[in-house]
C-alpha cells in the first residue's frame, strides 16, 4: 500500500486560479488578487501570514478598475508636433 501522507499537509491552499496577469495600475494579479511579492513568498509564509492575506483578498477586487475597450480605452496619443 502506498503512503500518501506527504501530500496531505495541513496548509492553507494558494488562492491561485491560474489566471496570472498583473494589473498595470493596481500591481496585483487579476486572478488571485495577490501582489507579486505575496506570490513569490507564499511557499515560505507562515500559516498566520497566509491567513491574513486570504482575509484581505476580497477587499482588493475593487482596485481592479475595469478598462474600456476599443479606441475609448486608449490613452490619448500626443499630437505630431508634441513629440
Keywords:
about 80 residues, mainly alpha
Q: By helix and strand content, what is the structural category? A: mainly alpha
* Number of helical segments with 4 or more residues: 2
CA-based shape:
elongated
Low-confidence stretches: none
The overall pLDDT, averaged over residues, is: 81
Rg, alpha carbons:
19 Å
Largest sheet: none
Output the helix-strand order. Answer: HH
Q: How far is the N terminus from the C terminus?
A: 71 Å
Percent range for helical residues? 10-25%
Q: Beta-strand level of the residues, as a percent range? A: under 5%
Short description:
This protein is mainly alpha-helical.
Topology diagram in text:
Layout: H1 36-41, H2 47-60
Textual characterization of the structure:
The protein has 2 helices and no strands. By secondary structure, the protein is mainly α.
Amino acid at each position: 500500500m502506498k503512503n500518501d501522507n506527504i501530500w496531505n499537509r495541513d496548509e492553507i491552499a494558494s488562492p491561485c486560479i491560474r489566471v496570472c496577469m498583473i494589473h498595470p495600475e493596481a500591481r496585483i494579479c487579476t486572478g488571485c488578487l495577490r501582489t507579486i511579492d505575496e506570490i513569490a513568498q507564499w511557499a515560505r509564509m507562515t500559516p498566520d501570514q497566509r491567513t491574513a492575506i486570504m482575509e484581505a483578498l476580497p477587499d482588493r477586487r475593487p482596485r481592479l478598475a475595469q478598462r474600456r475597450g476599443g479606441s475609448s480605452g486608449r490613452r490619448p496619443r500626443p499630437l505630431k508636433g508634441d513629440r
